[in-house]
Design brief:
Blueprint lengths: L1 E6 L8 H8 L6 H4 E12 L8 E2 L3 E2 L4 E11 L4 E9 L6 E7 L11 E6 L5 E9 L3 E10 L6 H19 L6 E7 L7 E4 L4 E11 L5 E3 L7 E3 L6 E4 L17 E7 L9 H16 L3 H7 L6 H8 L8
Antiparallel strand pairs: 1-11, 2-10, 3-9, 4-9, 5-8, 5-10, 6-7, 6-9, 11-17, 12-16, 13-14, 13-17, 15-16
Helix pairs in contact: 3-4, 4-6
Amino acid sequence: MKVALKTAPTIEPLTLADLKLHLRLDSGSFDDNLTITQSLAYGSKAIANNYTTHVGTGVNVAGKQAEVLLHCGTNGATGTNDTRIEESDDNVTFTAWTGGSFTQVTTTNDNADYKKPYTGTKTYIRTASKVLLAACEFGTSVLLNEAETAEDDLLTAIIQAAREHVEDITRRALLTQTWYYYLDEFPGEDFIRVPFGNLQSTDLSIKYKDSDGTETTMTVTTDYLVETNGEGVGRIVLPYGISWPSATLYPSNPITIEFKCGWTAAASIPSKIRAAIKMLCENMFNHRDAKESQAQGNVTDNRTVTRLLASARLWDEF
């Protein structure tokens, strides 16, 4: 199988906070573990029937546990405040996070603080608020549980290494990533299997070069169909009455299939796979010395890890 990684995952199955909680690591004190960052400065906010006037500053929450705090003072007579959490990958383009709307604040429940945990997967979050009928006093902040230890860089590397090891064992791509898959010829069957499981229907393309090096891009639904097959191996299938191109192909990697695969969120990865990754991370952290690891018995070869991953392995040959 000839493949090349185009785009690596932007998130991991475990966050740094997840692994620290599993390993019982923290900064040493409650205060050191917590950081509060202002998103929207507190003050009187004028009437604005939109979510673009009273917008907070984005806060980086990657790998951290986060809660958004809404600090409310006095609403003007009949005034209402609707505040929501927005999320972003790049701190530029934000969208409303599903489930991120606070209870509407009116004159009956103002002068109070409210909180809402952020459990999404984006790197940045902020707040956006709509004010109706009268000015309202409020502001927002983000509370982060971001215990920092001397081992943070090591733990981050361990998480990636454990994920890659599990991908090797299961022959899966765990989280969204883009690959190139190269073929030397079109198959004799009316389908092409796509490796790594969890094929995503978007951003899939098939290109082929003829003997002169002229490249042609095939058209989805006309030249081929995409069969995602859930967590299994996806396929590219010929429509009824259609054949693969009959051109004389270029001698080197003439057919390139670009595809995206993997679960779209860490929370979607089956619990047995995440449990195996935690065991691998724990082993790599606690037994960093090769001799000690061998003496203690390497969890990488532990039967529990093997059993957890056995039913997740893809057996198709490529």
